[in-house]
Design a protein that fits this description.
The complex is a heterodimer of chains A (222) and B (189). Chain A has helices at 6-22, 25-41, 45-95, 98-107, 112-141, 150-181, 200-221. Chain A is an all-alpha fold and 222 residues long. In chain A, helix 1 (6-22) crosses helix 3 and helix 1 packs parallel to helix 7 (200-221). In chain B, 59% of the residues are buried. Classes of the chains: A mainly alpha (222), B mainly alpha (189). Chains A and B meet through helix 3, helix 5 and helix 6 of A and helix 1, helix 2, helix 4, helix 7 and helix 8 of B.
Chain lengths: 222, 189
């Protein structure tokens, strides 16, 4: 499955939730959840367990909230749809590494800036999260009180958030310099190093999925 | 788009997603997940703010796909932050905090239909519980859903606006001057 073109994988992952909402709630939901679970089962050995567990941990609270708010009927009808969304998304994350998607975007003529934004964000978020953790530890070591009344907590929040954000903004200068050095600018085209192979068959499948979704929607509305 | 503004977007998205560590440390019921969107808009305008909001939802969706439909709220927050920048509401906390409260009402009104029609209001634990409280108080289904979102968003957006104002004023003038709207946002230009 990993060999499929990223756009084909995206089309499948988007079609399942779409079908879950277009089809009748119970039967349609059951069919799309089953399809998403089949996709997960088809993953490589260890990934099956990891992805299924992550999807279950994400979906379980939603089932609980639905049961508390709407009882068994709401749990079954909306729960199946939401489970489809969760399961197909986790499957997509498992089969589609972001760098491969970026390569496909560049190969298809997307602006370099769009590809940069996606990949740079994925690397910036974990780095800033680690820095946030260090900052919390450092401020606590300096005697910052993070517990107490709301005002004390709000002051502590300011003492933690402002330095973190300021340090992140100073990083913009370094990133700008690095990007300019690498020649990133408007109107510049890049050549992808390893563009994912596409085929007429896969293009036909993507169009088929789109046509099927539109036809199903028209059938449901009629 | 100038390279500096392009470089700002991933940083602003990271701010949106990393501030949860500070919130966890102080144990307040806040999200602060629009701080980067509002800050990016105040520094660099609505296009950068909208891109930050959309990318935040996309990256968050990789971890929890239920975030994606709320991309609309991020866009509305960016547009409101642009109005706040042009209106000079970041000049002091006296104007920023009420503006944040208003955004809380707008954001909860914008997120209610998404939350109701897609998730039946079962999005996060806090919102589900406050929606249940709204049901017990006798609100109609959509009203209970709005009540849940309102409780979550009202204070959160006021704190976010106060925080962004503090950051804009703490930013060294030389750094602020490198962004097109930063000095205007705080009334220094």
């Amino acid at each position: 499955m990993r060999r499929l073109h990223p756009f084909t994988l995206l089309a499948v992952a988007a079609a399942l939730p779409a079908a879950a909402w277009i089809a009748p709630p119970r039967t349609g939901g059951m069919a799309t959840v089953a399809a998403a679970l089949v996709l997960i089962v088809l993953l490589d050995g260890r990934q099956v367990f990891t992805v299924a567990r992550a999807a279950a941990f994400t979906a379980a609270p939603l089932w609980l909230f639905l049961f508390v708010l709407h009882g068994t009927t709401g749990l079954v009808e909306t729960g199946l749809r939401l489970t489809t969304v969760v399961a197909s998304s986790f499957w997509l994350v498992a089969v589609l590494p972001p760098p491969r998607l970026v390569e496909a975007m560049i190969a298809r003529g997307w602006p370099v800036s769009a590809a940069f934004l996606f990949s740079a964000t994925l690397s910036a978020v974990p780095a800033l999260r680690v820095r946030a953790g260090h900052l919390v530890d450092a401020q606590r070591a300096r005697g910052l009180r993070t517990r107490g009344g709301p005002l004390i907590r709000l002051r502590a929040l300011r003492a933690l958030a402002v330095p973190l954000v300021l340090s992140a903004l100073h990083e913009v200068d370094e990133r700008t310099l690095a990007l300019e050095t690498r020649g990133l600018g408007p109107g510049i085209k890049r050549t992808p190093l390893a563009p994912p192979p596409d085929s007429a068959m896969q293009r036909a499948v993507r169009w088929g999925i789109l046509v099927a979704c539109v036809a199903a929607l028209a059938w449901r509305i009629a | 788009m100038p390279v500096r503004l392009l470089a700002l977007i991933p940083v602003a998205v990271a701010i949106n997603l990393a501030l949860s560590a500070a919130v966890d440390a102080v144990g307040l019921p806040l999200f602060l997940d629009t701080t980067g969107t509002i800050l990016a808009t105040a520094l660099a305008g609505p296009v950068v703010g909208i891109a930050t909001g959309a990318l935040t939802s996309a990256v968050n969706s990789l971890r929890n796909p239920t975030f994606w439909p709320f991309v609309v709220v991020q866009v509305i927050v960016a547009l409101y932050a642009w109005a706040a920048t042009r209106g000079g509401w970041f000049r002091s906390l006296k104007t920023a905090v009420p503006a944040g409260f208003v955004l809380g009402v707008i954001a909860s009104a914008a997120s209610t239909p998404i939350s109701y029609f897609i998730f039946k209001c079962a999005t996060t634990g806090g919102i589900a519980l406050t929606t249940k409280l709204g049901q017990l108080l006798g609100f109609p289904p959509l009203g209970a859903c709005f009540f849940g979102s309102f409780i979550a968003d009202f204070g959160d957006k006021a704190v976010t606006f106060a925080l962004v104002t503090s950051i804009l004023h703490a930013l060294p003038r030389r750094t602020a001057a490198r962004f097109p709207f930063a000095l205007r946002a705080i009334g220094a230009a």
